[in-house]
């Protein structure tokens, strides 16, 4: 099923950030949104994830297919790596976390408490969560933050496998990722120049 | 829903402090009251129902601000909202986990602590029953307050001020059940009111809490 965004306008608080966004993704497609800090990448992803309502426009084809990964990892330090993954797999009605552990080379760490992991390892655990949910649409906000080159390549490999199975990936990223993806530059969709400019105009 | 409950209980047991905090506070209150009031068995027996209920209520209040803030801080709450669970169910489960880890130990310990306040043995059953029926309302109202203040730094004070007025009906009817039970008069009036408050709160508060939580997450 096609995942479709039409004439979408997103706002942060009362300030409109992006307007007139149109794109659609078929099974197996990936799209990377780019743009300077503050342009609204996170707001766009949060809106599509349903964490905030769109200012206007439609988002179609995401029902019960979506999993979101934000800036925070959502990991409980007192649970082990396996327990953290197990929890999310159960929440999404799945069982089995072995592919998730394997994909991000976490099998050896599975009995450790997540609190002792390094930042990069925590990130890998957060990304492994995507695998165990078995959802087809991945919404990723800066997925490669604090990953080393080797782990980035590992992540790209997992994404390529996901796409080859008909998955959809929508990611915001500043780094070049090694999988086939269209790029959407958000700068042209900005609604106002910036909040600071209009603030200064008010006093000129 | 069950995995969420299991996780919350496991977290409470591993962290430890949240389990013992309410109970320790309740113990402190009941131990110190006889010192401050004086060793008068008759007077203590008279005020015991009220003190036990007040102590349990304040102990419940202590751990409320942790109800959502831990999941908020590490991003879990955001991920749970996107997950295929109704947010209302998430809130009910969180409130249930709070009740099991905080209120249930208080319910069980109350008759024991009643000994310290010279509560007549005929009141043990009534304090157990009234707390058992009334404390679910405390957890559920608390979940609403916690949802309302979740993003705020130092929201604990605001949370207490918002929640305490809503606790008053439960406190009045709960303590009244025990008092009437001790006097041997009919307890059905306050007991039904206590149960009614709990049932109403459990039916309505999840929707209100989910609405404010969604607003806070925007």
Provide keyphrases for this structure:
heterodimer, A: 204 residues, alpha/beta, 5-stranded parallel beta sheet, 3-stranded antiparallel beta sheet, 6 helices, 8 strands, 24% strand, globular, B: 218 residues, mainly alpha, 85% helix, 0% strand, elongated
Low-confidence stretches of chain B: none
Distance between the termini of chain B: 24 Å
Strand content of chain B: under 5%
Major beta sheet, strand line-up of chain A: 5-6-7-3-8
Strand content of chain A: 15-25%
Topology:
The complex is a heterodimer of chains A (204) and B (218).
Chain A: E1 3-12, E2 15-25, E3 30-34, H1 41-49, E4 56-60, E5 66-69, H2 81-91, H3 98-103, H4 119-133, E6 137-141, H5 149-164, E7 168-172, E8 182-185, H6 195-203
Parallel strand pairs in A: 3-7, 3-8, 5-6, 6-7
Antiparallel strand pairs in A: 1-2, 1-4
Chain B: H1 2-15, H2 17-37, H3 41-62, H4 66-73, H5 76-82, H6 87-116, H7 124-148, H8 156-183, H9 188-217
Helix pairs in contact in B: 1-6, 2-3, 2-6, 3-6, 3-7, 3-8, 6-7, 6-9, 7-8, 7-9, 8-9
Q: What is the gist of this entry?
A:
The complex is a heterodimer of chains A (204) and B (218). Chain A is of the alpha/beta class and 204 residues long.
